[in-house]
Amino acid sequence: MVRKWTVAVAAALGTAVVNTAVLNTAAAGTAGAAPAPPAADGAGSGERPAARAMPGAAAVADLRYTSALRLAPGVVARTFETSGVGGKAVGDLLDVDLRAPHVRVGLLHPDAIAQRATVSGMANAQHAIGGVNGDFFNISETHAGVPPTGSSSGPEVDGGRALKAAVPDGQRFGPALPPGTSTRDVIGVGTDRRGHVASLRLAGTVRSRLGTLELGGLNQYALPVGGVGAFTSEWGAVSRQRAVCGTDHARNDPCSTDTAEVAVRRGVVTSVSDAVGDGAIPAGTTVLVGRDEGADALRRLRRGDRVKVRYRLTGKVRFRFAVGGFPILRGGRPLDGLDAAGPAPRTAAGVSRDGRHLYLAVVDGRSETSGGVTVAELASLLARAGASAGVNLDGGGSSAFVARGPGESSATVRNVPSDGAERAVANGIGVFS
Prior knowledge:
Layout: E1 17-20, E2 64-72, E3 75-84, E4 87-97, E5 104-108, H1 119-126, E6 130-133, E7 156-158, E8 161-164, E9 185-190, E10 195-199, E11 201-208, E12 211-214, E13 217-218, E14 228-231, E15 259-265, E16 268-273, E17 285-291, H2 293-298, E18 308-314, E19 317-324, E20 326-330, E21 333-334, E22 346-351, E23 357-363, H3 375-385, E24 389-393, E25 401-403, E26 412-413, E27 428-432
Pfam families: NAGPA
Protein name: Phosphodiester glycosidase family protein
Keywords: Glycosidase, Hydrolase, Signal
């Protein structure tokens, strides 16, 4: 999309909000025909290059709970057994009563957006009593000389503050998106203390003597073609070069050679360059990166120009916490078109119809004791656990379930990671009490 300077009033900086979907009561059903799986594995997506579509039932058998441990009032960790097209599957489930006093759900995160850490490491650093891994992320890179950023594909909101926005759909990692879903989809908890599955869209502007430029990105590893993105001190020290690589439809397309970068320090332009840089961004500084038409617009700025950068994530309901994940369950029914690739380790999160309960689930896979589940089976598993709406999170070697029981000094991994050890990931969902 061509980005042009226009005369408009800049959007006010605000708390992240979302546009929620109405949740309806319904029994779990079967998913429709699935599209072909992605051509390449992504970010521990639960798929491998050789993964193939699996015939058979789209729902798991009844859940049989094999143990239960109360981590805190309103927070119960359970283990379960079930079965699907891959045979026996075992996993862990965290049931969180969002109305329980002293219970809070928040974003597990490393020290920077473009950084990775293990779920147990993040949970212990932030004093969480339990949690799971979160969104898909930029774990690998095909562009020569461009380092992977480790940052997530979807939005992040923590403490009501927008940390990052979503990359274009074609730039994401993970299984194929069901029809009608996008990288903007999230699961989280609103200021109403209820769980929601919804969508977050970036609304932002760059205002200067030239007019107002639409902001197309916030702390994200890929910008829309022709767009301009803002990077803050929360991004970290990793190169911002990946943001100008790929296209809106294919993440492996070449990097743009028409780029520009502008540093704005406390509202004043301090540098304008054709090269996209790296290194830590000082507090109080915003780095604007443009590609193609966006770069043309940024190059018109001059040192000393006054610039105001404002942004928010928009919708109808305010989020206190949100993390990216693509919807797989709505109104108690699996969505049509869920990826049919074979059973694998999976992570999911869901909310009850009234939004009072949050369910965090991890299913082990690729082992003799647990074959894993397909995405459609994962949706039915959430429904059997009590969810009305839910999302698929990063899976495969990224799937991790951690908990700190009463009297224990730290949270530990309770599932069996398929890589043999816990993988460093972009973010996670943490439960605090």
